[in-house]
Design a protein that fits this description.
Family: Belongs to the glutamyl-tRNA reductase family.
Number of strands: 10
InterPro entries: 4pyrrol_synth_GluRdtase, 4pyrrol_synth_GluRdtase_dimer, 4pyrrol_synth_GluRdtase_N, GluRdtase_CS, GluRdtase_dimer_dom_sf, GluRdtase_N_sf, NAD(P)-bd_dom_sf, Shikm_DH/Glu-tRNA_Rdtase
CATH class of the largest domain: Alpha Beta
CATH topology of the largest domain: Beta Polymerase, domain 2
Order of helices and strands: EHHEEHEHHHHEHEHEHEHEEHHHH
CATH superfamily of the largest domain: Glutamyl-tRNA reductase, N-terminal domain
Radius of gyration: 28 Å
Subunit structure: Homodimer.
Shape: elongated
Pathway: Porphyrin-containing compound metabolism; protoporphyrin-IX biosynthesis; 5-aminolevulinate from L-glutamyl-tRNA(Glu): step 1/2
Protein name: Glutamyl-tRNA reductase
Length: about 425
Amino acid sequence: MVGLIGISHQTARLEIREQLVISKDEIAGLYEYLNRECDVNGIMALSTCNRTELYFESDSSQITNPQEFLANVIKSYLNYFKKSEALKQYLYTHMGLDAARHLFRVTTGLDSLILGEYQIVSQIKEAFSWVDNTAMVGPEITRMVHKAFEAGKEVRTRTSINKGAVSVSSAAVELMGKKLGCHSRIKSLTVGSGETGTIVAINLSKKGCVNNLVSNRTFDKAIQLADRVNGKAIAFEQFIDELKNVDIVTFTTGSPRALLTKDIAEKVMKERNGEPLMVMDLCNPRNVESSVAGVEGVTLFDLDQMEEVVKANFEKRKGKLAQAEAIIEEVLEEFESWLNMRMMSAAISSITSTFKNIHAVEAKNYKKVKDEEGAKKITEYGDHLSAKFTRMIIKQIKDVTNEGRDPEKVKLIEEFFNFSS
């Protein structure tokens, strides 16, 4: 059984969300802890600008009380990160097909801050890559993730919901233009050259920004991105000094601590001689202290302050929602069929082995006769009958259990055929 615990822009503000970010380096330890405390057999952690979601997998046959099990996973999750249980009020949870449906909606961009955005796909791919081909992920999460990618592709192909859609990164560039005027006159500094920073710098370049500065801890990466956008690379140690010269700075790094504090901002503003500075923080956890918003001359935008662009984007694409949801249900039904067949696999295996064992014992008695040719024919006919009866019973089991959808009947059949001849 798969499940998830999550927090997003829909349930909590950024100052709450950033407390539950899961990094790549924390995955192995979290898995070992949940495996020990809750018998969780697999996990995948998705942390983006606007959400953190922990997907987990357990043996459903060992779960007698799903709600109690889920409560234990939540408690262990918070305990591992030494977080207060008061955070539970901001969490949402799903189990079984509801968890899969949620992931499918996330992957297709239906649950994103920017409806239809595509950046989430690469973020899910990265999250899955952290656990893929390890003992930390099980077959159900693996199958669910692949079906989520399939759902995303189908929705985008058949509805064009992402046509002209923007990511948070490109939405930030749109907001710059609205607040500062023509992009060609903007002098911009992007701190961070990962996926988000790259999208910001490239979109600025496409809008005509010729003063496009890029800074990154690894200077070579800053140079590479600057070359792509005909900009200029700035050494990470020098980006603070550059703030006195730009109109806007956009932070996109994965730093766990603030890179721009109130004290630094106050010093920068003194050097700017009253010239205003626009600061965008597209990070979770935040790269900019919230108190920077109180510094005279600074206008700070973080992920919670993108409503203007978000609302405009939603109005353009809301007509595609019903069709997209219908496609998700189609793919979800395929995933459910796979789960049901997986659930019945033990029963089918038990039936097959039971008939083979009966045939082997009975055929052995006939082999005692001297007629070897007759014994061979008996064996062949026995194989034929075993296969025929097995197919007949399996077909009947599928009908009785509604293709495996009735777990109680599946379990009963497993027990019924679990006998020796």
